[in-house]
Write a structure and sequence with these properties.
This protein has 75 residues and is an alpha+beta fold. It is 33% helix and 29% strand. The longest helix is centred in the N-terminal third of the chain and has 11 residues. This is HPr domain-containing protein.
Length: 75
């Protein structure tokens, strides 16, 4: 599953990473030619705020309680 998100501020990135870190499946974040682990605060900070980011979610069983969080930052 792929979705696009955009973070306006650094605080939003921190909140997002704290929540997705609880997920039992892998989530990657892609921006241009960069791909980082979306559970990595350093990786997500390297991408930065104000850019459209594509999330690649690797789960066969859906995203459960992360759906609302992703909608919050939908691009």
């Amino acid at each position: 599953m792929c979705v696009q998100v955009c973070f306006k501020e650094i605080d939003e990135i921190v909140k997002f990473v704290n929540k997705v870190s609880e997920a039992p499946f892998q989530i990657d974040a892609c921006c241009g030619s960069y791909m980082v682990d979306a559970k990595s605060i350093m990786g997500m900070m390297a991408i930065g705020a104000g850019k459209k980011v594509e999330l690649k979610i690797y789960s066969d069983e859906g995203i459960g309680n992360l759906e609302q969080l992703i909608r919050t930052y939908a691009a």
